[in-house]
Design brief:
Layout lengths: L1 H12 L17 H9 L6 E3 L6 H6 L4 E4 L3 H12 L11 H16 L6 H13 L31 H5 L3 E4 L13 E4 L17 H12 L5 E6 L2 H9 L3 E7 L12 E8 L2
Helix pairs in contact: 4-6, 5-6
The structure holds S-adenosylmethionine.
The site of S-adenosylmethionine has 21 residues, from helix 3.
Length: about 270
């Protein structure tokens, strides 16, 4: 009975529930390309080992999902939304308030209280108000993104609409290859972009991690979709492992040089 009620609710919410955070590398634009793969597999659990801003899962609206990210703050925030969350934090797009809230958030982290509703409120505020929605920490673990200088921000306080959407979605926080995959799972993996000509990258996701991702996904017996920047070595890696490749043009924001050329992306699939 509860399940039937949720299906009706879900179809109405497909248009209305937006990703609650700003997230670098959001793949909302890919949802129309992914839907044909998902349509005949909707009975499966959707798994995102790198869920980030949740654009894809909120676009596809599965009944069941397993959503992982190595960033503990984003996962704490989603877990709070799943419980039913209303923020009581005073929020405004004012520089002095931003730095005061950033300090309070960092104090909570130092106290080991990063998994609390207070931390979720601060994290949401800093994500909306900070520069480009970035999530960056200094060597001692302090959040150090500067004030964003947006003209206008619409803050959300009431996140209760996410409670029913997230009811059968589980949120975990670990390195991607430790997630408890089931053989039947439908996996959509969107790791950090490969940045060619470097073996290390910010956030610790270098070439070794790209190889580890490709090999981890290749072992999965269920349907898999991988998205990445179409660098030569990424294309070779997935090609050699027998994935089927298609190429898409990612919308690219205008860079400081005015460059609007689309960035080529590869979508590698297997077991369809
Ligand atoms: C490109 S983003 C995913 C964006 C997401 N698809 C969206 O539409 O918003 C990649 C994500 O991988 C996460 N990540 C980086 N290293 C990871 C690891 N070793 N295990 C799990 N997640 C990781 C990052 O925190 C980031 O949120």
């Amino acid at each position: 009975m509860a399940r039937a009620a949720r299906v009706v609710e879900t179809s109405e919410q497909v248009e209305s529930v937006r990703p609650p955070l700003k997230w670098a590398g959001g793949k909302r634009w890919q949802v129309p390309h992914l839907r044909p793969y998902w349509e005949s597999n909707q009975h499966r659990r959707l798994v995102e080992p790198f869920c980030g801003g949740l654009a894809v899962t909120l676009g596809l609206m599965p009944e069941r999902a397993l959503l992982n990210d190595i960033n503990p703050h984003v996962i704490n925030f989603y877990r709070r939304l799943k419980m039913g969350f209303v923020s009581t934090l005073a929020m405004s797009n004012v520089e002095a308030r931003f730095y005061a809230h950033r300090k309070s958030f960092n104090r909570l982290l130092l106290q080991g209280r990063g998994d609390t509703p207070e931390a979720a409120s601060y994290f949401y505020y800093l994500n909306r108000t900070g520069y480009n929605g970035l999530c960056r920490f200094n060597a001692s673990g302090g959040f150090n993104v500067p004030f964003g200088r947006y003209a206008n921000i619409n803050y959300k306080k009431d996140f209760l609409e996410y409670k029913s959407v997230f009811a059968d979605w589980d949120f975990v926080n670990m390195d991607f290859d430790r997630i408890p995959l089931e053989p039947e799972d439908f996996v959509y993996a969107d790791p950090p972009y490969d940045v060619e000509f470097t073996s290390y990258s910010k956030g610790g996701f270098g070439w070794k991690e790209q190889e580890r991702t490709a090999e981890f996904l290749a072992k999965h017996p269920g349907p898999v979709i991988l998205s990445n920047q179409a660098t030569k070595r990424i294309v070779d890696l997935y090609d050699k492992l027998g994935y089927k490749l298609i190429f898409l043009d990612a919308p690219r924001r205008i860079s400081c040089t005015g460059d609007r050329t689309p960035a080529p992306e590869v979508v590698a699939t297997r077991n369809f």
